[in-house]
């Protein structure tokens, strides 16, 4: 029976969570397995891997073949390196103490790299949060200033507009009334003063015919004068 070390999918839709299992190569991906040797969570940054190093190395010693993804996980956690060092110990190329020292040094270096990556990610997150907070504060300050200015303009408009309207309502009728009151007696006075002149003119028009009637008498005297001259001429003759 051939054994494979592979991932078995669990978790919710859109948020997968995997088990690292040793299973029969003929079984389904999510079917029966021989042993669960770890977990893999790709939803975090960096990914969270929990692996039973001794069990994984033992299955490798027994001839289990990992899939590509499982091989990457085993390499990341040092299982492949331990499997290689154990082979060197069996062949006598190095002692167990030397193999353990090399594995410990590699694990420490790997842990430092992971911690540095986590620190960098944390710093980047803090910087991004600080920038977002600063931008939000600036936006809030601008919005508050704009609201305050708008409220101030509205207050000024509400205070000035009623005063102008009140002055117009109070002053306009007074001027109109005074004008009417002042102008009306003047018209009546003019009417009263003009009346006597009209009467005088009427009297003059009535008396004028008397003078006109006297004019014919003068003309009659003028007509009689030639007759007197003719009688004088006759007497001289």
Task: Please describe what this structure looks like.
By secondary structure, this protein is α+β, with helices and mostly antiparallel strands. The chain contains 4 helices and 5 strands; from the N terminus they run E-E-E-E-H-E-H-H-H. It has a 5-stranded mixed beta sheet. 11% of the residues are buried. The C terminus is likely disordered.
What is the element layout, followed by pairings?
Blueprint: E1 3-12, E2 15-24, E3 35-41, E4 48-51, H1 53-61, E5 65-66, H2 68-77, H3 79-91, H4 96-236
Parallel strand pairs: 1-5
Antiparallel strand pairs: 1-2, 2-3, 3-4
Helix pairs in contact: 1-3, 3-4
Bin the helical content. Answer: over 70%
* 3D shape: elongated
Euclidean distance between termini CA atoms: 199 Å
The major β-sheet equals: 5 strands, mixed
> Count of helical segments?
4
Mean of residue pLDDT values: 74
What amount of the residues lies in strands?
5-15%
Number of strand segments: 5
Order of helices and strands: EEEEHEHHH
Q: Order of strands across the widest beta sheet?
A: 4-3-2-1-5
Low-confidence stretches: 176-181, 183-237
Which value, in Å, is the CA radius of gyration? 65 Å
Structural class: alpha+beta
């Amino acid at each position: 029976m051939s054994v494979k070390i592979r991932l078995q999918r669990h978790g919710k839709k859109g948020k997968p969570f995997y088990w690292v299992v040793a299973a029969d190569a003929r079984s389904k991906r999510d079917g029966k397995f021989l042993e669960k040797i770890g977990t893999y969570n790709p939803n975090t940054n960096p990914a969270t891997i929990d692996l039973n190093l001794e069990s994984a190395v033992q299955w490798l010693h027994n001839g289990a073949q990992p899939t590509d993804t499982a091989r990457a996980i085993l390499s990341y956690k040092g299982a492949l390196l331990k499997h290689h060092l154990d082979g060197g110990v069996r062949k006598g190329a190095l002692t167990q103490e030397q193999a353990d020292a090399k594995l410990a040094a590699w694990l420490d270096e790997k842990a430092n790299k992971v911690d540095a990556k986590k620190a960098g990610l944390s710093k980047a997150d803090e910087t991004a949060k600080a920038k977002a907070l600063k931008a939000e504060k600036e936006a809030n300050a601008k919005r508050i200033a704009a609201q305050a200015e708008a409220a101030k303009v509205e207050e000024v408009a509400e205070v000035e507009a009623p005063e102008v309207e009140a002055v117009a309502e109070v002053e306009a009728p007074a001027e109109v009334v005074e004008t009417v009151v002042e102008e009306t007696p003047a018209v009546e006075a003019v009417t009263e003063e003009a009346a006597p002149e009209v009467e005088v003119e009427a009297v003059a028009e009535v008396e004028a015919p008397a003078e006109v009637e006297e004019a014919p008498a003068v003309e009659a005297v003028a007509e009689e004068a030639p007759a007197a001259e003719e009688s004088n001429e006759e007497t001289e003759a």
